[in-house]
Amino acid sequence: MKKIKVLVLVVLLLGNSGLTGAPSWAAEGIIYKAAAASGNYCHLKFPAIRPDTLYSDRPVLRDPSDGDIIDFYGPCDYDPLGKEEILRQRAVERRERGRHID
Questions:
Q1: How many CA atoms lie within 13 A of 49 on its CB side?
Q2: 3-state secondary structure the chain
């Protein structure tokens, strides 16, 4: 069900972009962006980084239809492939890996 919601969201965003193509922030991998009234705080949704690229020099975001979507609240200029997000997702991956070691 989560995958269907994400797919609907992507279709709506692309459909609302008009004849000019996708919004400029969509190129960064962000599938949802809503700014607070102040304009410097945003709610963002973007795909997680593909695990096979998380430790590479060029990480790549997952396909949004995979359903692994990050729900982020913070600065509007946040980069889903920036150093801060890479380190955060690496830490999550290490924690998850530790839970599966018996």
A1: 25
A2: CHHHHHHHHHHHHHHCCHHHCCCHHHHHCCCEEEECCCCCCEEEEEECECHHHCCCCCCCECCHHHCCEEEEEECCCCCCCCHHHHHHHHHHHHHHHHHCCC
The residue among 43, 56, 41, 45 whose CA lies nearest residue 86 is: 56
Environment class of 31 (CB within 10 Å of its CB; exposed 0-12, middle 13-18, buried 19+): buried
Give the rounded distance of the alpha carbon of 65 from its chain centre.
Answer: 12
pLDDT digits (tens, 9 = 90+) for 13-71: 444 444 334 454 454 789 999 999 988 899 999 999 999 999 999 999 999 999 999 99
